């Protein structure tokens, strides 16, 4: 189906998805490993604090908080080791988020090729996860990495790049995100953001997602096509 036909009668011109925690159930695996490696540096950080501090953010940008707690300035070699260990674990265990295949099929039926993936992660990780889960077939070359932009999330760069590549106004796009950094990035791009907060130990509290600017927060991927169909923004006061 063509993009124009797929998005007919919709308030949105395109749908831009985050990857980790939205399309693939990877955050638990990644956070567990990160907490383990930070403890190896001497930071007795809990799983919950690791979630609060790092989820949705590029690790390379968080060197100051790690330095403050460990006295160690993370190096390219340390980050590389994290990436290798992370990708090895994900390659074995990562799964699609429950209901995501049927959701993408319904959204793609409506929007055609005006759907894209816009992640803050590095491209190697993104493409490996798409390959392992089989989700890559829905996105083709419409996959964007925040690590390839001047700034990663919470800056809007990756969403602006995705919208530009699709030829749509970011203000007419829908962003689907599960973290504060991601919601902040989508709002900064001018998009409408729907927050995803499933029943998961790594989920961000729905109230926090709304506080960051999410217009709707939902907990099950099967809800998203209906929410898109029903969405009508409130008129300006």
Notes on the structure:
This protein is of the alpha/beta class. 45% of the residues lie in helices and 11% in strands. The chain has eleven helices and six strands. A six-stranded parallel sheet has the order 3-2-1-4-5-6, sandwiched between helices. β4, α9 and β5 form a beta-alpha-beta unit. α2 runs antiparallel to α5. The longest helix has 18 residues. The chain starts with a helix and ends in a 7-residue tail after the last helix. The N terminus is likely disordered.
Mean pLDDT: 91
**C-alpha Rg, in Å?**
17 Å
Q: What is the 3D shape? A: globular
Strand-and-helix sequence, N→C? Answer: HEHHHHHEHEHEHEHEH
Helix fraction?
A: 40-55%
Helical stretch tally = 11
Query: Which class of secondary structure composition applies to the elements?
Result: alpha/beta
The portion of residues forming beta strands comes to: 5-15%
Largest sheet: spatial strand order: 3-2-1-4-5-6
Poorly predicted regions:
1-8
| Tally of strands | 6
Question: Ends: how far apart?
Answer: 37 Å
Summarize this structure briefly.
The protein is of the alpha/beta class and 237 residues long. The chain has helices at 3-6, 27-40, 47-54, 63-70, 76-93, 100-111, 123-133, 157-166, 180-188, 206-211, 224-230; strands at 14-17, 115-119, 143-145, 173-177, 192-196, 216-218. The radius of gyration is 17 Å and the shape is globular.
């Amino acid at each position: 189906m063509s993009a124009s036909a797929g998005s007919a009668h919709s308030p949105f011109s395109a749908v831009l998805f985050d990857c980790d925690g939205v399309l693939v159930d990877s955050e638990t695996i990644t956070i567990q490993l990160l907490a383990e490696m930070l403890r190896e540096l001497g930071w007795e950080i809990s799983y919950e604090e690791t979630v609060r501090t790092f989820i949705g953010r590029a690790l390379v940008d968080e060197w100051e908080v790690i330095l403050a707690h460990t006295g160690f300035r993370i190096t390219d070699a340390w980050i590389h080791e994290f990436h290798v260990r992370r990708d090895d674990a994900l390659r074995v265990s990562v799964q699609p988020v429950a209901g995501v295949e049927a959701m993408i099929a319904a959204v793609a039926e409506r929007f055609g090729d005006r759907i894209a993936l816009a992640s803050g992660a590095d491209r190697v990780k993104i493409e490996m996860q798409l390959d392992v889960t089989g989700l890559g077939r829905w996105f083709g070359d419409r996959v964007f990495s925040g690590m390839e932009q001047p700034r990663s999330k919470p800056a809007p760069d990756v969403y602006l790049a995705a919208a530009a590549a699709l030829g749509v106004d970011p203000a007419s796009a829908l962003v689907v995100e599960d973290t504060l950094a991601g919601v902040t990035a989508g709002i900064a791009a001018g998009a409408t953001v729907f927050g995803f907060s499933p029943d998961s130990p790594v989920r961000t509290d729905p109230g926090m997602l709304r506080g960051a600017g999410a217009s709707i927060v939902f907990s099950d991927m099967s809800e998203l096509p209906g929410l898109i169909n029903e969405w009508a923004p409130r008129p300006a006061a």
